[in-house]
TrEMBL record:
One of its GO terms (biological process) is lactate metabolic process. Residues 1-93 form the Lactate/malate dehydrogenase N-terminal domain. GO terms for molecular function: L-lactate dehydrogenase (NAD+) activity. PANTHER family: L-2-HYDROXYCARBOXYLATE DEHYDROGENASE (NAD(P)(+)) (PTHR43128), L-LACTATE DEHYDROGENASE (PTHR43128:SF16). Pfam families: Ldh_1_N. It comes from the Eukaryota. This is Lactate/malate dehydrogenase N-terminal domain-containing protein.
Amino acid sequence: MLDLQHAIAFLRRTRIRASTDYSNTVDSGVCIITANTQHNPKESRLNLLQRNLTTFKRVVLSLVEHSPETLLVVVVVLNPIEVMTNIEMWYSRNLRNKYKYMEV
């Protein structure tokens, strides 16, 4: 977030916010998603996948509800990353928003 705030000096009419209140995204041009859930060392990859998928769905559906015209930029930091990237790309095709992906 701090890096983005430093870059704001070079952008016009830009406001950067971090929030869990999705109503703050109304009329946003771009929303960047970097959601992740904490991994429990004793947890299986399948359980982690299910929890991360649940988080992703909740975040994306809330953003689509509040900001149907925004560009959603999904920075994939959810594990297992290779599976989550494919699921997120498949899932997002069913929504009307525009998407960009980046694996971290």
